[in-house]
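Task: encode each sequence below as structure tokens.

Item 1
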Amino acid sequence: VDNQSSIEVFADGRLGHVSTMQRYQWAYQGAMQVHFNGEAISCMCNGSDVAYNLLAANVFRNSDDYFPDRPASHGLHILWNAMNALWTSQFSVPDWDMFWSHHPQGQFHAMARAISGGPVYVSDEPGKHNFDILRKLVMSDGIVLRSDRPALPSADRVFVDCTAEPYLLKITNRSGNIGVLGMFNCSAKEGTITDRFSPADIHDICGQEFVVYLHTSGKVNRLGHNDTIEVTLPQLGSELAVVSPVLGGWIAPLGLIEKYNAPAGIRSSSLVEENLLVAEIRDGGVAAFWCERQPSSVTTSRTAKATYEGQILRIEAETGS
């Protein structure tokens, strides 16, 4: 639903602005609940009076439009969404806007949407979808792999303009106690940026030791809470890191590692005995676990193939299982 703040224009000189907006919001949100289960997006033209009247249909546009044909806008779009979420996440589900999967920066935007915690939708031209990107956003039934909450910038980036200064924008989220951290080169200047990140960037993650898995490079590191890793990204390049606490000193669930938001593929996991981890995975595909040593046995509820290499246990099952 767009142009809600245009009520100020329509009501000018005819009706009270505040009372008209309030009654409009009651009618709009009531209709959304009755007819659409509350599944609506206030998608643009949101003044503060829209924000203050959100009652039920509270998915709220978090930035300016996505402009595929404005090269300078792509880094700004991600920066604005991360920073604006510091406010909007307090009263809404922030919506980071649509994007084109077939655009040269399709993955850059997809990675940000994947960990945003909000809705994910594309406005691709018919027949131009990049399914290599789209499949990494959703499960086999089309449901988006969402984190538990809205994404936020890391504390050390709140007062940094990553479009003008040589720092990567770091955006964090969590599924359960498994973190996901996105790094984005939002610079307006060509060239690479080298920066560092740490498990401590996810401010409320619990644990002393973590396994960090990088989506693009596939690199795996075992780190202490404040240890750091160096990452180098080109202009409008991005990387996603799974940050998983080591359980029992020997295992760390990583999730559906073929997906951007891998940890969101884990419904539950727990160390029920010292040497026994039980996990429920939301879909088929490749579920991965870091294991300090090769497990003596792997039992699955459906037919699956388990392999162990480089301290990574991969369990591959048909999608939908």
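Item 2
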Amino acid sequence: MRVAVTGATGLIGRALVGALIARGDPVVALTRDPQRARSALTGADLLAWPDPQHAPPPAAALDGADAVVHLLGEPVAQRWTERAKREIRDSR
């Protein structure tokens, strides 16, 4: 099953991508910085999505995908200022 994953370099995303690859599923990881993600996501196809808050995902990432796992979002493990709460809400 071909799976597209957003938030693939996060804590849950890395574990998910690793598990999917281990069971033989092709994975497309959407990332802001493919060069940085390369070492963390060995075996995944990496596609750049440089501005996920203001631009749609690249169509090539979703073409032929059997599933999409959307884990992208502002981290919740931070001080919850008014600005942080707004970013957490708006990023999902």
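Check on item 2: The first strand starts at residue 3 and ends at 6. The chain has a mean pLDDT of 93.
End of task.
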